[in-house]
Write a structure and sequence with these properties.
about 100 residues; mainly alpha; Multidrug-efflux Transporter Regulator, Chain: A, Domain 2; three-stranded antiparallel beta sheet; 4 helices; elongated
């Protein structure tokens, strides 16, 4: 079985160990909306590789660059917004190309 980056597969204790933080830190990040792990049927938090990567980015911004938690959150959200805008531009460019090829 192959897992993709969005597949929830790590329980909170494993995720915390991978990141070098306390499980309570991950619970706090969830409470403030920084991360939203999946839940099992028994309501156990499950983190994906994508969640882990996002949390690593937060940790890097805070520990290595001196950004506070609010700043890290803003930076991540801006990055997501930029990626979405780039996707939209790519879609528009493809639509323009299609219209030109159709002679419109």
């Amino acid at each position: 079985m192959i897992f993709d980056d969005f597949e929830p597969c790590y329980v909170i204790s494993v995720a915390a160990r991978m990141l070098g933080v306390h499980a309570q830190t991950l619970r706090y990040y969830e409470r403030i909306g920084l991360i939203e792990p999946s839940r099992s049927q028994g309501q156990v938090r499950l983190y994906s590789k994508r969640d882990i990567e996002r949390l690593r980015q937060v940790k890097t911004l805070m520990n290595d660059l001196g950004v506070n938690l609010a700043g890290a959150e803003v930076i991540l959200r801006l990055g997501e917004r930029i990626a979405e805008m780039e996707r939209q531009i790519e879609e528009m460019e493809l639509e323009i190309k299609r219209l030109r090829e159709a002679g419109l």
